[in-house]
């Protein structure tokens, strides 16, 4: 007899035939396709796309694809069995060969156009036609839409070949960047930071592309050699891949009356955003203008919280343009990113990013993107002055909300009930002077030590007696504030849930993609495992290997400490 309280056991999708039955394109089908597109999806040359929300396009299969890894955690969440990742037809689809797809799945994927604003300034120069009509998913191709447990997901190949937006480039992603994106997405999820998710990773055993990169031991800022790299495809998954830049594209067209349906297409894409990303929070039976005010509030909340989380975990999105800013408020585009090791408010690993997109400037970069979102959506409220005023007010409140989120984050990171400006400012100065390792410092502090000896484990420089005394004095003041609240073991436990023990250390990731190029995926699997439990204590062996300062030889090393976005 079944136990009355037993939960129904989960059923898993174990083969490709069952998987295709999950396809549900009903929301994509609500949008307009490019009226000039070929319906067979054979659309692989750079061209201008003047209207429509997407272009049907077939991805280009990887030659001789080999399975590297998949996210077991995410497969489990989706009810997909691990063995599915090894299924021949599944592997073919996620290495870009849609010819095996059968109904209700389709054999044609889709790519979308988007606009680009850099730090709040509109650009069209990056488009080969100078108009913006040839800019968008140049190598990202979505291939599947599904609803699982009431959640809609879009599955997108990165590196799936040329699209009309490829700008003459090859549409491929190299193994290095695919491994980085795959691991980083899983890591961010484990850190509880909203992100696109990793599904699968396959590499070609015979196809390569040439990219600029760094020679061994290079100290050069820019790449100094050309390297043949294996190509790979990672599949990422999100409720949508709508970017602020995408809303901007339709708003720019509406503004210039580019075609007769331009305003309607703007309306449609914003309604689509609400349905895809804000469905549970916005009541779509309300007047559209009211929904937009709510959208502005919710996106502001998500974006400010996202950026506060980035700073909490040491993440820097080195190129936070509007085309890399997801309108659903999640982290997107793991190319130019890095995680801060030696604490530096100006930390910026991507050589093309400059100070605008550096570590502590992310709140300002986020505001510039939010401004572009506001500018794009605003024309849709023109007829409703009251709603417009509320909408504008939400925009004006961005900086204040950002500050609130950041201060709450610092308070939590420090185990305090509320932000203490004096204590925080003093701490920043000490962290900079002692060149602390951002992760190790906060993790050691989470043990609430009596004296500074444990904290010194995180210092990259030897400190003077005078500096040590300043540290001790800071620690005493901090401990007084901490003990004012809950008992210290409760605070310590909470701090350890906020301050990860394990982080992304580029010099430990480099060997993983280098070995992978030789066909050995052991280190990738090891990193997946370690980075899946960043807040937990792990074995002594893992601690010795991953919880340590960056060795001197990697300082200023090209491809490790800094990199161009040669992806
Ligand atoms: N190898 C390539 N082939 C075609 N287009 C590319 C290639 N590399 C980059 N692009 C395009 O250049 C633009 C800017 O590049 P960026 O590095 O932000 O994108 P990405 O890493 O491909 O994208 P995503 O933001 O989708 O993660 C994007 O529109 C992207 O599609
Ligand atoms: Mg991008």
UniProtKB/TrEMBL annotation:
Instruction: List UniProt keywords, sorted A-Z.
Output: ATP-binding, Magnesium, Manganese, Metal-binding, Nucleotide-binding, Nucleotidyltransferase, Transferase
Would I find Manganese among this entry's keywords? yes
Question: Which top EC class is given?
Answer: transferase
Residues bound to Mg(2+) are 324, 333
> What reaction gets catalysed by this protein?
L-tyrosyl-[protein] + ATP = O-(5'-adenylyl)-L-tyrosyl-[protein] + diphosphate; L-threonyl-[protein] + ATP = 3-O-(5'-adenylyl)-L-threonyl-[protein] + diphosphate; L-histidyl-[protein] + UTP = N(tele)-(5'-uridylyl)-L-histidyl-[protein] + diphosphate; L-seryl-[protein] + UTP = O-(5'-uridylyl)-L-seryl-[protein] + diphosphate
GO MF term set: AMPylase activity; ATP binding; magnesium ion binding; manganese ion binding
**One Pfam family here:** SelO
Binding, ATP: 136, 138-139, 158, 170-171, 236, 243, 333
For this protein, the Enzyme Commission number is 2.7.7.-, 2.7.7.108
> What are the catalytic residues?
323
- According to the UniProt entry, the coiled-coil residues are none
Matching InterPro entries: SelO
Family from the record = Belongs to the SELO family.
Name assigned to this protein: Protein nucleotidyltransferase YdiU
Organism of provenance:
Aliikangiella coralliicola
- This chain is encoded by the gene named ydiU
């Amino acid at each position: 007899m079944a136990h009355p309280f037993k939960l129904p056991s989960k059923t898993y999708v174990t083969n490709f035939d069952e998987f295709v039955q999950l396809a549900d394109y009903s929301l994509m089908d609500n949008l307009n396709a490019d009226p000039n597109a070929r319906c067979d999806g054979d659309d692989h040359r750079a061209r201008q796309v003047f209207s429509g929300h997407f272009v049907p396009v077939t991805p280009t299969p990887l030659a001789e694809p080999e399975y590297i890894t998949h996210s077991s955690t995410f497969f489990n969440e989706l009810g997909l069995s691990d063995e599915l990742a090894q299924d021949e037809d599944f592997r073919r689809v996620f290495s870009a060969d849609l010819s095996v797809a059968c109904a209700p799945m389709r054999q044609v994927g889709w790519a979308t156009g988007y606009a680009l604003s850099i730090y709040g300034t509109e650009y069209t120069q990056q488009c080969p036609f100078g108009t913006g009509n040839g800019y968008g998913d140049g190598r990202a191709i979505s291939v599947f839409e599904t609803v699982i447990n009431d959640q809609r997901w879009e599955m997108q190949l990165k590196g799936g070949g040329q699209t009309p937006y490829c700008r003459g480039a090859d549409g491929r992603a190299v193994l290095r960047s695919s491994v980085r994106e795959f691991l980083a997405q899983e890591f961010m999820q484990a850190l509880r930071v909203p992100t696109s998710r990793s599904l699968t990773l396959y590499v070609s055993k015979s196809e390569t592309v040439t990219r600029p990169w760094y020679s061994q031991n290079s100290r050069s800022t820019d790449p100094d050699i050309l390297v043949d790299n294996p190509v790979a495809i990672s599949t990422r998954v999100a409720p949508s891949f709508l970017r602020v830049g995408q809303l901007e594209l339709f708003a720019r067209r509406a503004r210039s009356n580019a075609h007769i349906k331009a305003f309607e297409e703007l309306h449609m894409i914003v309604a689509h955003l609400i349905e895809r990303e804000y469905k549970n929070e916005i009541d779509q039976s309300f007047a559209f203008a009211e929904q937009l005010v709510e959208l502005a509030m919710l996106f502001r909340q998500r974006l400010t919280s996202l950026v506060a989380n980035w700073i909490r975990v040491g993440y820097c999105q080195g190129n936070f343009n509007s085309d890399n800013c997801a309108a659903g408020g999640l982290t997107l585009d793991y190319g130019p990113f890095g995680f801060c090791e030696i604490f530096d408010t100006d930390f910026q690993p991507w050589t093309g990013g400059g100070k605008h997109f550096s570590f502590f400037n992310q709140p300002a970069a986020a505001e510039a993107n939010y401004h572009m979102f506001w500018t794009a959506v605003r024309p849709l409220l023109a007829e409703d002055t009251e709603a417009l005023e509320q909408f504008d007010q939400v925009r004006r409140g961005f900086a204040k909300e950002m500050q609130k989120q950041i201060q709450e984050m610092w308070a939590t990171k420090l185990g305090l009930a509320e932000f203490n400006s004096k204590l925080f400012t003093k701490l920043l100065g000490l962290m900079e002077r002692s060149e602390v390792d951002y992760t190790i410092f906060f993790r050691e502090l989470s043990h609430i030590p009596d004296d500074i000896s444990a904290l010194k484990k995180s210092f990259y420089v030897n400190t003077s007696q005078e500096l040590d005394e300043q540290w001790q004095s800071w620690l005493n003041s901090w401990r007084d504030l901490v003990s004012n609240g809950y008992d210290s073991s409760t605070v310590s436990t909470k701090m350890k849930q906020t301050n990860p023990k394990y982080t992304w250390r580029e010099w430990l990731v480099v060997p993983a993609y280098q070995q992978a190029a030789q066909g050995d995926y052991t280190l990738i699997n090891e990193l997946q495992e370690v980075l899946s439990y960043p807040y937990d204590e792990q074995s002594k062996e893992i601690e010795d290997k991953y919880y340590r300062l960056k060795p001197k030889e990697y300082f200023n090393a090209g491809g490790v400490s800094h990199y161009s976005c040669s992806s």
